[in-house]
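Hi V.,

You were right to ask for the full record rather than a summary. Here it is.
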Amino acid sequence: MAKKKIDLTPAILILPAFILVVCVIIYPIISAVVTSFRYYRLTDILNTKFIGFDNYIKVWSDDAFIASLPNTFKWVAATVISQFIIGLTLALFLNRPFKGRGIVRSLSLVPWVTPGVVIALIWTWIYNGNFGVLNDILIKLGLISAKIPWLSNADTALNSQIVTMVWQGIPFFMIMLLASLQTVPSDLYEAAVIDGTSVIQRFRYITWPHILPTVISTCMLRVIWVFNNVEVLYLMTQGGPGYNSMTISLNAYIQAQKSLNFGYGSAIAVYGTLMMIAFMILYRSITKRFIEEE
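Predicted structure:
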């Protein structure tokens, strides 16, 4: 009986992608975990050594890390929720026919395609306490009587950067939800109108169930991206004033890239990864149950 010939074509085809994933994702993760168990400071490279869980223990006595925990939650939650609400509102508006809709759709993508570095520089200028345009507008409108140092004030620094991040990410939600809205069969709306349903009822029982899978996936992706974002925070305040706008990802970046303490920075990054994994497990269990109820 002849042996069945094994077709290696599928394996050969996926081999380049597999190698890329190993080099770009798997190896850096393993390297970071290994480094987190070592004293690894680039300025003291000759004394690199294994120190076990010392970096992980040290984290909990670090004021920057402790401050970054509530800041990270606020940064992610406020940004993603605001982006979703505004993005959904714009998607519902742009899903309706009106003159110039194509131009409006194109212009609304500008924040999304603008590089993060450029966005940070633009909004830093807007928030400038001395000559920023925001203070100028608010004073002329009579809403404030004196200039506010938005990025150097402990009460406004993080909130100001959240507004910046919301502005940048709205188009992502808008375009994804708009694409999902356009897949909803129009005859369902026509039948609902004939039955005398209200706008809210049509959204609740027709629109929402159809776009829910897109809402779940886009929110999860955006949580990951916002959590990992450091360029806006670093360029605008570097986590200041004090630690009032410090997040977990930014702290890990500063420790590794600025202080050159790769071991300690890796430990913070591992903590952040574990938190994200726990969130994703919880998020998937909640959304799965929600979809089943729908």
